Amino acid sequence: MATILIIDDDDAFREGLVETIQDLGHTTLEARSGEAALEHLRERCAPDCVFLDFRLPGADGLAVLESLRGIAGLQHVPVVMLTAHATSDNTIGAMRLGAFEHLTKPVGRDEIAVLLARMLAAHPDAPVAATPAFADETPSREPQLLGVSDAMRDVQKRLGRAAGTHSTVLITGETGTGKEVAAHVLHRASARAGGPFVAVNCAAIPDDLLESELFGHGKGAFTGAHAERRGRFEEAHGGTLFLDEVGDMPLAMQAKLLRVLQERQVTPLGTNRPVAVDVRVVAATHRDLPAMVAAGTFRQDLLYRLNVIPLHLPPLRERVADILPLAEHFLATLAASPDAAHKRLSADAQRMLVTFCWPGNVRELANAMERASALAPGALLTREDFAFLFNTTASPNDAIPASLAELPLNDALAQLERALIVRALALTDGNRAEAARRLGISRQSLYTRLANLGMAGSDS
């Protein structure tokens, strides 16, 4: 049972609202003006939530809401603004001051019941399941490759070994898995950490400008080349050059990149002056390069040169143990901003996040945390605050991740089967009998599938 304060000078409406809320099992307090309500609040314990009319004698509802937010202990009490005539100004003003909801009178019983349930669930004192976080990680403004799952521990180990060498590294993984973050971490952990880190997105630069971007050009090399310019290879001398989306590089440019990797020198466009470069190349792609080699769209000899140390970043759906710690990490990062309130995840939101497939991976998770934190009316994020993740207007084709759509059917089915099994095992803490039940198959069938997928020795 909660205590709800109703501030409204319309006696008939206020009494009707009091009756409805009491019928729903809650205790009510009443005030006919903002001044009376504020005096009451300063003398007594804070209510669990407030219904506040916009038009009041004396100070209007927005002024009362602003005053209420300045009283210790009342900053996070959920407030519903009520008005007979909603306008853009009073709606925006109410939400800017942190109102939980803005309703137009009259308000039905069912709407009040649903709203009260949402407000009370979002109260800062509402119980919430504990979530593991990266408490042992050293705080840093630099990109971090965070993860506690076995899959990410393997990535971290391989990255650490690669950092002790000067070999070329090829980072693969779906869009949003953190390939550039991994490249930054690799650079910082290597002997080249004191040198520059230069990133180039090969897919974002027009084909006819990519050679100049990478190798530089001399004065007059082409129309508009009014001065000599160093390329990205020269800029990265003594450090690391990160070639993102290398799978989108045109074939002609692939041949020139191969030559640079072999000879460790570049020749700026429009010159005959070779320049020696000491650069560690880290390349990344979300594409299936072996399949592109078979199709004739990527050079096999370049793949050999790039793929000296392979580093694959697993999709978020295959590292379920990382989802909640990452979500809490993103919320904590957002709360560090000036004037930002710290938001937490309710138990139902946690369950939803863990079972969502995350086609956009870590990038999508970070975006979802920021969006929900910015728009949620309460301090506790509930499942409803993440409703935007389930877009019912999307076509069936949109539901297929691009990484699967590009694969042969058998490979795509194997990837999907592996992901579903990994998730089921994670949700059941490795209990194979329970995982089989969730998947709708027999335990023996699960054992057979695990063996076929090379997962027989693992619970995750």
TrEMBL record:
Pfam families: AAA_lid_14, HTH_8, Response_reg, Sigma54_activat
Residue positions, PTM 4-aspartylphosphate: 53
Tree of life domain: Bacteria
Signal peptide: none
Response regulatory domain boundaries: 3-120
Key words, A-Z: ATP-binding, DNA-binding, Nucleotide-binding, Phosphoprotein, Transcription, Transcription regulation
Domain Sigma-54 factor interaction: start-end pairs: 145-374
Protein name: Sigma-54 dependent transcriptional regulator
Lineage: Bacteria, Pseudomonadati, Pseudomonadota, Betaproteobacteria, Burkholderiales
